[in-house]
Amino acid sequence: MANKHLGDTAKSIASALAFASYIISNLTEKELSEIKRVVWTEKTTQIFIEISKDPEFKKRILSIARQYIHPVNVDAGQLEKAPESAIVLYSKSLEIKTGAAKTLISWDVIKPESTRVLLNKRLFGYVHHKVSYPGLVQKYSAEKIGKGCIAIPSQYSEIFLKLFKDMKISISVKEVRELG
To answer: Going by CATH, does the domain composed of 98-178 fall within 3.30.70?
Structure first.
């Protein structure tokens, strides 16, 4: 059950990041300068966009949000203190360029089972007759985020992408920055 929760959380964070990117890409430079930060809370699955007191700008933000491809639980305004479970998706005060570039790769259920098993062996390695064979995740310092989702240092992403292409597995790819 815990692995399912991690997978759901990873998908929720990825969805929240995609939404934040959508909002940011639909703003002018001047409007973007009015956004202090964008936060997401896992508990309420709400995205909050912290802005100045301007009610017209709040209307503009919410109007853009309504045009998003999926319905999103979003609000905008002033935020005194972010909830403890909040994840900052965007902030002017963070220096994004200092974080390590990561590539997130996610995939759905793989069929047939033989393909799924082969992918897992290639990604995560296996042990045969007490001999351990490391997978790409170990070789390239990647990490499993949840079921069907891994984070890879971006400089190695082509190796992983080639594996999925060769195995004809449909994937979703996101480029992110690791902070901290």
So the answer is: yes
> What are the structural domain ranges in the chain?
2-92, 98-178
Residue 134 gets which letter from DSSP?
Answer: -
The HSE-up count of residue 176 (CA atoms within 13 Å, CB side) is 21
> 43-64: per-residue pLDDT in tens?
777 888 888 778 898 899 899 9
Instruction: Answer yes or no: are the C-beta atoms of 10 and 106 closer than 8 Å.
Output: yes
- Dig out the tokens for 93 from the structure: 């005060």
Task: Quick: pLDDT tens for 78-133.
Answer: 877 766 667 888 887 544 445 678 899 999 999 999 999 999 999 999 999 999 99
Structure tokens at 166: 């060769």
pTM higher than 0.70:
no
10 Å CB burial of residue 59 (0-12, 13-18, 19+) is exposed
136 vs 65: CA distance, rounded Å:
38
